[in-house]
Amino acid sequence: MDSNRYPKWLMTVTEIVDRSGDIIRTHDRKPREIQKKGRNDLVTDTDVAVEQFLKRELLAAFPNTRFLAEESSGDAGLEDMTWIIDPVDGTTNFAHGIPFVATSVALWDKGRPVLGVINLPLMNELFTASLGGGAFLNNERISVSHTEMIADCVVATGFPYAISEHLEVILERLERLLPVVQGVRRPGAAALDLAFVACGRFDAFYESALNPWDTAAGMLLVTEAGGEVTESDGKTSYIPGAPEILATNGRIHQTVAEMIAV
């Protein structure tokens, strides 16, 4: 697969992901069937249904591809031509009727994401990106914010499921950030957070202990929108599944990295 195929492939992937949103919207009007994978880690029948739909449709459209998907193939590796899928990012939100819910699909090839789609079906927003082709929201080009002063920034973060293991660091970082930034937000869906950095709603996002399916599509969106994505030190290249991620508009990247250093 070469880059001149990306726009055509992106159109197909976008159509598939968009249709998967119908499942979430339909299930949103019905009682939830919820199970627990951990104390704070939920899975619903919607997660499973969306993932099964995406795998079936993507394999039909792209036969020689693999899957790294949260609910059915979470242990697969990052190999060439691998679809990285989070069917419902923000499952806890969905379980409680909060609309901050995302479906994230990325195609990983030659050591990087080359296609990325993040759908917010309960908010009617569809983010898309291809390597070298820019980033878009509902077919309109987007870019990161131009904010340069940390006092003017809205910073997003998230909390790992194993909260007790990370609590000290979480509180230390918030103690540093809260007095100096304009605001800190925690929507509860990393894919949404990254999409919001890409379109300039958030100036920065950081989080620990995320999985590849949480970040693969979003990191492409941010970089194609002109932003920067690294590990939390602000320097190390980020690979999905790394311990921490920092995504910003680029202008405040090192400042935020210094503030969250532990």
Provide the descriptors you would attach to this structure in a database record.
262 residues, alpha+beta, Fructose-1,6-Bisphosphatase, Chain A, domain 1, 2 domains, five-stranded mixed sheet, 14 strands, globular
Number of structural units classed as domains: 2
Structural class: alpha+beta
Strand content: 25-35%
Instruction: Please bin the fraction of helical residues.
Output: 25-40%
Q: What's the helix count?
A: 7
* CATH architecture verdict of the largest domain: 2-Layer Sandwich
Distance between the termini: 41 Å
Main sheet strand line-up:
3-4-5-6-7-8-9
SSE sequence, one letter per element = HEEHEEHEEEEEEHEHEHEEH
Largest sheet: 7 strands, mixed
Q: Would you count the extended β strands for me?
A: 14
Task: Tell me what the structure shows.
By secondary structure, this protein is α+β, with helices and mostly antiparallel strands. The chain folds into 2 domains: 3-141, Fructose-1,6-Bisphosphatase, subunit A, domain 1 (Fructose-1,6-Bisphosphatase, Chain A, domain 1); 150-259, D-Maltodextrin-Binding Protein, domain 2 (3-Layer(aba) Sandwich), CATH 3.40.190. Helix content is 34%, strand content 26%. The chain has helices at residues 6-28, 45-61, 91-95, 163-177, 190-198, 212-224, 253-259; strands at residues 34-36, 42-44, 66-69, 82-89, 102-109, 112-120, 125-130, 134-137, 140-141, 154-157, 183-185, 204-208, 228-230, 244-248. A 7-stranded mixed beta sheet has the order 3-4-5-6-7-8-9, with helices on both faces. Strands 11-10-12-14-13 form a 5-stranded mixed beta sheet, with helices on both faces. Helix 1 (6-28) runs antiparallel to helix 2 (45-61) and helix 5 runs parallel beside helix 6 (212-224). The longest helix is centred in the N-terminal third of the chain and has 23 residues, at 6-28. The mean pLDDT is 94.
